[in-house]
Write a structure and sequence with these properties.
homotrimer, Rossmann fold, alpha/beta, 306 residues
């Protein structure tokens, strides 16, 4: 396994993912044992052009648990106080002199790819706008495998904003590489999964069902992957946003309709789309899913820093 | 001594405080010797919803001197760039997957308690609005004990904004647990110590005197605890603020009225309420007091991380 | 060599610089070998009153490569959330209780000197407004020496904003301490090198030439030191700014006029004043120059932390 830049979910084939998940499982043991110091000479730069403390903390914790150092900014637009106009490429070239790995988050689709194009050291995409967030997709798959035991044969409902949610789009793409998976896309008409993904699934003969009623699919599925209707992706189409939010709420009733061995996932943050009462149910896997992000990112760091 | 969350001054009894101060004294030796690396596998998260570089630096230095790692934000309101509405509880649950101890600062009274209620890992309150700032109260007591030699029998003047200053309120509360302490509350009528604390002192038979003239009490006291009249606590009552600020200034004249073995304390930052000329006097203890914050926070960290 | 505070370029004599450059060269080996952990008990505070991620990252990487710890703010104006009015001196006194070295960046000329005046621990100036940025001047000299082999006898063109650029002013000053240097000041009339520096050069019998045409001096020089016309230094004199920017652009044509063994330097960030096509030329030394900043800052840290 020879991993350098981590830019998009599509770059991962099944053997690479399985290898990575093996390493992530080892990282669970490492963390339980209090972390290691093997990477105490390595520096990770977190270059965030928009603040996302959650994602930044997850990566920084991963590096610290490996014993490494971190240089960090959530304010990368101010990389220089005197010249807002510096190109991303120049910034990356300079960071190559400082860091052994660069984790970048940016508002613009394609920024991580641009960064990687000029970087000698590995670049990891921590989200580029409406584009990719590959480490999220990987930790989602890792969670499914760990909770359900296998990915082959999985029946999964993806719920909510499937049109704009980069998480579910990447996840659908990655799941299509496994065998016998059936996907249920549960969304209001305005937020349906887009044709490019559906076309990809047809082409690869992956079963999928489009549905508007959540309760119909609940008894069928191993995983309910809930998402938030993201207000900020609607721009000024407030009326559309109001129409779509709150259509699918996961609550005690939802739980009653689900299989005993199934799980509920959510990329977090959650707002009203999963009620607090659900948290206590053992099927509520979303906080464990967030925790898995740490192990998967530790695994990625160890592979790209080899 | 079994310390987990550190939420409010009231949770500390005298034996716990004395135990903690013993550890803090040991930490002075540790720092003088260049720090230790015993905690190199531990991670502290500083989760600040409002910036306070001073307090954050004090905690982060404490963790670094113990050899530990830090993940840090002064921008926790942006914990997720995409959903401002995430609950504090969800944020804490996620941080439980990353950090071994969480230091929280928040604008709202009671936030630290809410955080602790859902946290497996220790939560330390670094100030919640007009509420508590228990580590400040502890370092104040530690300073008094170290500078004066004992707390029993202490005569202390608290000066300035006693109505709204959380520091003096907590300190008065903690001092009431020691023997033979006399407190002089020196404040303009608008900023008098509030009735809840006075009632508590009466109930526990602690001597106190209310006074408006500082010079009358100066010859009596071992400690002058000066505070700043905090403009931000007055809201738009600018006239009241202007009336109260600058009533009590500690300067060369004040020093002449004080006992030779007494000290001047201040939680810092100070503005005009202590003049610069006072800094050179050996009785000016406020910078040593700030330094003691480091030792007390190191001590707290070692106890909660056990 | 006994170095404590690093406040201005003028404080360095030639033997001190050469000693420092020897250490910096050793640091190149240290970094290539993966860094050291000798400074794992030391803490550096970066106290930035204005954000400059580039400079901050350079210093923090330097400290991390030495094994040290960092406490960091780009938001030092908010050192306390409650009192904007705290003096710089009080902030420094408090930081003396936390850190072993303080790196300060501030908008006001003279701030670093004020900080040093009250600080027991070393203070390093990382830029004070239009004043000094001594570590930049040192890394510039280090780069020249490393790339050209020697500083004595150097022929260097400084190009662009010589009136307001603190970088070229400091560099001219430091170069005047070496033998046989000739400086070509290439600037539009509005941005000419100021009389104080010219007077200093005359006094020390250093050769210099004032010129407005870049192409005339190109065949003569070993170093072309390009600078950016800094919009922010013009305030509201927009017309003057527009007149001056873009007068000297380094591009393929410029390269053709230059000696084969010469180099192009730039303090970065660069905007339009060096075109991207130049980056591939081996004479383009500006990214190597940025990298040298790391070695020089590591060297400075080891000397002041002795």
């Amino acid at each position: 396994m020879n991993l350098h830049h981590v830019i998009e979910a599509q770059q991962f084939d099944v053997p690479t993912m399985l290898k990575l998940f093996d390493t992530a499982a080892k990282m669970e043991t490492v963390v339980a044992g209090g972390g290691i110091t093997d990477y105490q000479n390595r520096i990770m730069a977190t270059l965030f052009y928009e603040p996302s403390t959650r994602t930044r903390f997850s990566f920084e914790t991963a590096m610290h648990r490996l014993g490494g150092h971190v240089i960090s900014t959530e304010n990368a637009a101010e990389f220089s106080s005197v010249a807002k106009g510096e190109t991303l490429e120049d910034t990356i070239r300079i960071l190559n002199g400082y860091a052994d790995v660069i984790v970048i988050r940016h508002k613009e689709v394609g920024s991580a790819k641009r960064a990687a194009a000029v970087s000698r050291v590995p670049v990891i995409n921590a989200g580029d706008g409406a584009g990719q967030h590959p480490t999220q997709a990987l930790l989602d798959l890792y969670t499914i495998r760990k909770e359900i035991g296998t990915i082959d044969g999985l029946r999964i409902a993806m719920v909510g904003d499937l049109a704009q949610g980069r998480t579910v789009r990447s996840l659908a793409y990655l799941l299509s590489k496994f065998r016998g998976v059936t996907m249920y896309f549960v969304a209001p008409p305005l937020l349906k999964m887009k044709e490019d993904i559906l076309e990809h699934l047809r082409e690869h003969k992956v079963s999928f069902v489009e549905e508007t009623a959540l309760d119909k699919v609940l008894p069928e599925v191993d995983v309910v992957y809930q998402t938030r209707v993201q207000k900020e992706r609607f721009g000024d189409r407030i009326a559309d946003y109001e129409k779509c939010r709150g259509v699918y709420i996961i609550n005690q009733d939802t739980l009653r309709g689900m299989k005993p061995k199934s799980i509920i996932m959510h990329p977090l943050p959650r707002l009203e789309e999963i009620t607090m009462e659900v948290d206590e149910d053992p099927r509520a896997a979303y906080f464990r899913q967030a925790q898995n992000g740490l192990y998967v990112r530790m695994a990625l760091l160890t592979h790209v820093l080899k």
